[in-house]
Amino acid sequence: MTGELKEQNNDTIFQDAIHALRRGDKVRAKELLTLLLKTDQNNAVYWIWLSAAMDSQKERIYCLQTALKLDPENGTAKRGLILLGALAPDQTIQPFPMNRPRIWEEKLLLAHEKPKERGIRVVLRNPILRLAALSVIGIGLCIGIYFGVILPRFATADLPPTNTPGPSPTFTATPTIFGATAIPTQVFAGPTPLSAFLAETYTPTPLYVNTPRSAAAIDQFRIAKEAYENGDWDGFIDNMLLLEPLEPESADIPYYIGEAYRFKGENNRAENYYNKAINIDPNFGPPYLGLARIELADNPNSRRVEEYFKEAIERDPNFGEVYLERARYLIDRGDIEDALEDLELAERILPGSPEVYLAYASAYLAQNDRKKALEFAQKAYAADILNMPTYKLLGDLYIDNEDYLNAAEALRLYTTYQPEDASGFGKLGQAYYYLGEYQNAINAITSGENLNRRGMLPYIGYRGLSHLALGEMEAAEDDLADAVDEEADNYDIRLGYAKALYGVGKFGSAFLQIEAVRALADTDEEKALELYWRAKIQEKREDIRDAIKSWQDLLKLDEDVMTPEMRQEAQARLNELVPPTITPTATRTPRGGASTSTPKPASATPKPGATPTRTPTPAKTPSATPTP
Question: How far is the C-alpha of 182 from the C-alpha of 174, rounded, in Å?
Fold first, then answer.
C-alpha cells in the first residue's frame, strides 16, 4: 500500500514538472525532477525530461547519456544526443514525430516541386476560358433583362402579389481552432555545468553558521547567499563587505569572507579575515578550521595544523567538518586508525555525507583493503552522483580491479567536468589502453601532457604501447624511451621498447633491451615472448647461432604459454635455418672378412656462422599474452 501511494505521489510530481516545463518555468521543473531522481535514479524518462529543463549544453548531454545508459534502446535520448552533436547520426533512428503541419515548408518549394492543382481553380486561371465565361455571363444577363424587365412593361397580364422581403437571416459564429492558443513546444535546450541541478558537495560546503540577521541585513545576506551557492566568490565578497558595517559584532561575516578568498586561492587574504573573526569572537570555532586548511596548503608538516584542529573542536564539538578534515590529514600521514575514529564522529554529525564516505574509501585504500574502499566509494556515488572526486576514486579502484570498462566510464565523465586535472586524463588513457581503444588512449594522455608534462610520465608508457599497437613505430620509440627512464623494471615497457626499436631497424639497441627483458621475465608466458623477440632480433643482427638457440628454447616450452602462430613461426624458422640432414642407411658386412667403407652423409650440417636465407617478417607479431 505504501508503495502504491509513493508511486501515485511520484506521478503527481512528474505531471507537475511537465506542466511547469510547458509554462516555461524551468526552475520549478528542474526542482521537481531532481526530487524524483532522488527517489528513483534509474528512471530514464525522468532524465530525459530533466535534460529539457537544463540551460547549458554539457548537462543536457549528461542527462541524455545517463538516460541512454539506463535504456539503450530509448529513441528520444538518441535523437536528443544527435541534435546536440554528442552521438553520430544513425539512419535507424526515426526523427521526432510531426504533431502539426509546417506551413512555412510550402513557401520553400520550387515550382516543379509544388503539387499540381486540379478542379475549377485550374479552369479559372486560363484567360481564354475566363473570357468565354464572362461572355456567357454577359449574354445571360442581357437575355434576363430583356425577358424580365423590358417585355413585362408591354404586357397586360395581372402581376401576382409579391412577397415583402424580411430581415436577412443571421448566423451565430461558432468557436474555431483558429482562435485557440497552442501550448508552445519545448525547445530542446542544452546543459549547464554538471553541478547545477544537484548539490555542489564537492566545492563549497553549505553555510554552517545560521546567524539570525538584523532587519536591515536580511535582503543583503540573501543576495550574498545566492552568490555563494552559485560559486560567484567576488559577488559574495562584495555583498558580505556591505554587511560588515550593519553587523560589526558578527564573527561569521569575516569568516565567510575568508572562506570565499580561500576558494579563490588567495590564502593571505583568507587568513586575515579568519583572524578578524577570531578577534571578534575568540570562542567561534570555524575560523580555526580555516586556518588549519591554509596551514596545510602552505606547510603540510607544520605542528600548528593539529593545534588549529584542536582549537576548533574545543570551541565547537559539533562541527563535523573539523573531524572530516582532520581524518583526511591523518590519512595522508598514514595514521589510519585515528582517522577512522574521526570519521565515525563525522558520520554521526554529517549522516549520509558523500565526503565522509569518500574519506572512508581513502582510508581503506591506504590500508590496501580495496574491497571496502570500493564499497564506500560506491556509497559516496549513491549519496551524490555529481560529486566529482567520487568518479576519480572509482576510476582508480576499477583500474586496480582490472574493471577497465567501468573505469573508463567514470574517468571519462570526470575529465569532462574537471578538464584541468592532468592525472585524470592519464588514468583514462590507461583504461582505454587495456580496453584496446588505442587512439582514444593516445588522445587522453596527450590531453594530460598538454596540462602537465612531468605529471604524465607514469602514463607515457601506455601511449607508447598504444602507438606500437597501431604500428606507429617512431612515435612508440620516443614515448617508450621516456617510459623506460621512468620505470626501468617494467617488463611490458621494456619489451615494448625492444619491439619499437626492432620496428625502426635499430637492431643493436633492440638486443640491449631484450637482454634486460630476460631478467624481468617471471612467468613462462613472459619467457616465451622474450625468446620469440630475441630470436627475431638476433636473426636481423645475423647472430644465427643465438637465434637458433632462442627458437629451440621457445619450442621446449609448453604449447599453452604461447600462441599457435608463435609456435608455427618458430618451427618454420628452424626448418630454414637448420635444414634436416640425411641419415645414412646401415650396410651389411659381407662374410669372409671383406670390409666396406662407411658412406658419408649426402649433405653436411651447415656451420652455425653461415647466413641462411631469411623469410620476410610478418606484419603482425603474435604474442602469447596481450602485451601492454
Answer: 19
Give the type of residue at 337: E
Band of the pLDDT at 103, cuts 50, 70, 90?
low
* Nearest alpha carbon to residue 67 among 91, 27, 37, 98: 37
Integer Cα distance of 508 and 441 in angstroms = 30
Rounded to a whole number of angstroms, the CA Rg of the chain reads 42
338, 491, 543 from 513: Cα distances, Å: 47, 10, 16
Quick one: which of 386, 426, 389, 388 has its CA closest to 408? 426
**pTM exceeding 0.70:** no
Cα(423)–Cα(425) distance, integer angstroms: 5
What is the distance of C-alpha 565 from the center of its chain? 38
Q: Is 19 within 8 Å of 6 (Cβ atoms)?
A: no
Q: Residue 220: which pLDDT band, with cuts at 50, 70 and 90?
A: confident
Label residues 617-626 b or e (16+ Cβ within 10 Å = b).
eeeebebbee
The x, y and z cell numbers of residue 257, run together, are 569572507
| 387: helix, strand or coil | coil
Q: Which long-range contacts (CB under 8 A, 24 or more apart) does 33-38 make?
A: 34/197, 34/198, 36/10
Name the grid cell of 176.
Answer: 474555431
Q: Strand, helix or coil at 229?
A: helix
Contact 78, 68 (CB under 8 A): yes
Q: Which CATH architecture has domain 386-487?
A: Alpha Horseshoe (1.25)
Instruction: Report the 10 Å Cβ neighbour count for 231.
Output: 15
Residue 348 confidence (pLDDT) above 90: yes
CB atoms within 10 A of CB 70: 17
Q: Which three cell numbers stand for residue 151?
A: 417585355
Residue 173 has pLDDT above 50, yes or no: no
Q: Could you tell me the fold of the domain covering 2-97? A: 1.25.40
pLDDT at 64 over 50: yes
Among residues 405, 360, 402, 399, which one has the least CA distance to residue 381? 360
Instruction: Establish how many alpha carbons lie within 13 A of residue 613's alpha carbon, considering only the half-sphere containing its beta carbon.
Output: 4
The model's confidence at residue 31, banded by pLDDT at 50, 70 and 90, is confident
**Cα-based distances in Å from 361 to 227, 271, 364, 393, 591:** 32, 31, 5, 8, 93
Q: What is the spatial distance between Cα 111 and Cα 612, in angstroms, rounded to a whole number?
A: 78
Taken in order 363, 369, 372, 377, is the CA torsion positive or negative?
Answer: positive
Structure confidence at residue 549 (pLDDT): 94
Determine the average pLDDT of the residues in 419-428.
Answer: 94
Residues of the chain with CATH 1.25.40.10: 2-97, 386-487
Residue 9 pLDDT > 50: yes
Which amino acid does the sequence have at 220? Q
Rounded Cα gap, residues 55 and 14, in angstroms: 19
